[in-house]
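=== RUN LOG ===
request id: a7f3
mode: sequence -> structure
chains: 1
length: 493
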Amino acid sequence: MNLGIIKGIQLPACDVDLLTLGRLIAVPFRQNIREGEVLWLYPSQHLPDNFSLDQYYQTQYLTKAESAFAELQTYPIQIKVWARCEYHWRINPQQKYLLEKIAKSTVWKLEALEHIFEQYQVLKLLILRVYRLSNPCVVNGPTESGAFYWPQREDVMAMNRESDTPVISEANFYQRKALLVGGEVYPYKDLEALQLQVEQIGSINLAANQLNDDIKIFLGWSSDKPVKPIKPDLDWIKTIARIGNSSDGNTFEKLVRKSFIKLGFANSNNKPEASLDPESTGGAGGLDFYCETPYQVVGECKATKSETVADGTPAQLIKLGHKHLQEQYDCCIKIIMAAGQLNRHAKQTAIGNRMNVIRPETLQKLVELKAKQPGSIDLLQLKPYLEQQPFGEEADAKVNRYIDDVREKLKVRSHIVQLVKDFLERTKSTSVEFNQLHGAYAFSMSPHPLKYEEMHQILIELSSPLTGYLGRIKGEDLGRDHFYFLRDLPLDD
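=== RESULT ===
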């Protein structure tokens, strides 16, 4: 449905930029706006009470503010968003203590907010739900300075719709609104400052762009269903099985080394005969791969197009392991990466010497999972699978069981995150109590039943700052903990 917007409001250009990016949900605005009113957001070159940029904005936002105002030096200019007023909040003298908390949660200096308050004995904050236009409006000439913007005949006004994309999700918006109005300090201000620094170096360091995107998704400054970027790593990862089933042994050895590094293994050893460097393979007299941390792993690679694997492959691992690692060899987990079937003698040697025979397809699945879900592979949890029977070719099945277990855990966690998100959007709540959530999980199409304490432990994990899928408000007891949505946990096919 189209929405007929009659007027706009003039806001400082930097504030409009930050609203557009999802960094702000509220701005100071003195004139009354009724709840539910829809408005254009016009980027103005003026600040309240004739403040200068450095008087109005906190230091870390000055570069952003200067850039935003510089873009308005010439016309035409664009209006890229519209907004719906959710609440016009009046902070009266009895609530003056909130000014410090608002400053800590936003971009304006406390001194500026206090000055506005002293002038009018009230600070009015307009809380806005902001939506992106599919096509921007074009303002072709200057408009008269003031609180409002009225489109002129020469301006080209785009069509706005109810279906336009909000800059932040509904759950994220209402959670942030509750924090602001409740006088709670926004908890991710330091992360915002980091994002600004990362964004500024993105043009000279492309690797920073991925970190920038990840932070914005975590903070909710992204679309509700973010499109996951294609991982460049997948290009080489998807060749592991094919190369392993060829006669290109040298390339396969390099891919195996890259795979172990990708999984989180490392080796500070500079000796090429016992290394993990993909560009410096062991050669005829060296080990195919050797990992030192987080635990020792030594292995031999055998790319095979069609032939069986002879006893020489496990025998070579024993010989070279003792030669280059001496007594350390016995402490190592031992792996043979091979596509072909082992012959009878090779099977006996592998099983008798506790060697895991793993197929290239299984290695590829493991590394793909790590690439798509970086926190999913815990090498210390994988270790017991590699240390325990069965060995030989049957070891491949136990590694696949580990992969299946990880995928099942991811499904459960993704389901819980979606459950929180759906509950908040359905009820228009800012958070959900654990007791309510546990009941909702029991009656949902869950991939796996969970005990009460087990589900709570998973929620603690998902709300950790290191994962950041949910937020947590600690209650008086376990059942009174509240959780809120931060970002999706998408599953790849």
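=== NOTES ===
The first strand starts at residue 8 and ends at 12.
Confidence is low (pLDDT under 50) at residues 223-230.
=== END ===
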